[in-house]
Amino acid sequence: MPIWCPNCNAMLPEGLEECPRCGAQLSPSGKGGEADNDRSLIFWLSAYTIGIVLIPIIAGVVIGLICILLFVAGQR
Fold it and tell me: Are 19 and 5 in contact (CB under 8 A)?
């Protein structure tokens, strides 16, 4: 079963340690870096999700604090 170079996407036979076309190091398992790509995708999806959730929460807290400060300042 052929493997694919993670750098130039060349189809390669199994058992190579580096791509003869571009010189990229190939993983010993022959997966071509698919596990690294999966981890990177999961990281970025998690970062976007956290950002989408945290930005409105932080904005609400800031607006709430401003309202409290203005209310306290108006009481004096």
Answer: yes
